[in-house]
Amino acid sequence: IVSLGQPMKKYTAFEELGRGGFGAVYKALDTSTGQQVAIKKMNLQEEMSEEMAVNEILAMRNNRNPNIVTYLDSYLVDGQLWLAMEFMDGGTLLDVLQAVYLEEGQIGAVCRECLQGLHFLHSRQVIHRDVKSSNVLVGMDGSVKLADFGLCAHLSPEHSKCSSRVGTPSWMALEMVRGEAYGPKVDIWSLGIMGLEMVEGEAPYQREAHVRVLELIERNGPPKLQKPRHHSALLRDFLWCCLQADKDRRWSAEELLQHPFVASGDPASSLAALIISAKQVQEERR
Fold this sequence. Notes:
By secondary structure, the chain is α+β, with helices and mostly antiparallel strands. Helix content is 37%, strand content 19%. It has 2 domains: 80 residues, Phosphorylase Kinase, domain 1, CATH 3.30.200; 191 residues, Transferase(Phosphotransferase), domain 1 (Orthogonal Bundle). Pfam families: Pkinase (PF00069).
């Protein structure tokens, strides 16, 4: 799956952007093109990490779309997998949410861009399974792209449903929490939670312990806006369509792209000013 060659010579000027359980992500310079790239260095010693790494490469390489982060190359370096992809200069949607407040038109724009990516994935029988603000990347030009495909599932005619519980508890769909078989609509639930996150600044139960979160989701069912009257009927209806407890009544990505809240959202290019001001806030906090 990986390329042969000398990534140490190809990429220089490494600067760490963040780290997680898998390893770390760096900004680097591709000496052959002069362009900035992002490089995810994944430790393969951990259990499951090899499977996740292969999963991520295949999902990104085989599913090219304007709303999915572009895969560039991958290498094996001293027991680490290096995954090179396009560098998104606006950071994560989470970074933006922690710095500025989003208007409804902007939330609609982000949802539309994510839904375009999800509709593409779902039409190709891929479930992301970890949709949340820290896995959505943004560009200074207002572009919005899905990232982090380590947990995604590839469906087939013989294997048309999944049952393993993966993802991040606060964003996990009710049917997954209950241990039921599930399909692509788990991503729609997670998108609905991300909608709540954009409105309220954080996901429901985000401060609770993981096990407690799962208990609360199962007991309380779909979470609700804290102050519903402060928001438009269109936004409330959109979230209601995403967060249906019955997955058969929950709307698909294709259906939600026609929802008036999404259809009336701002153009993606208008997010540029928001992302630039979020960057300025982050710089000031440093």
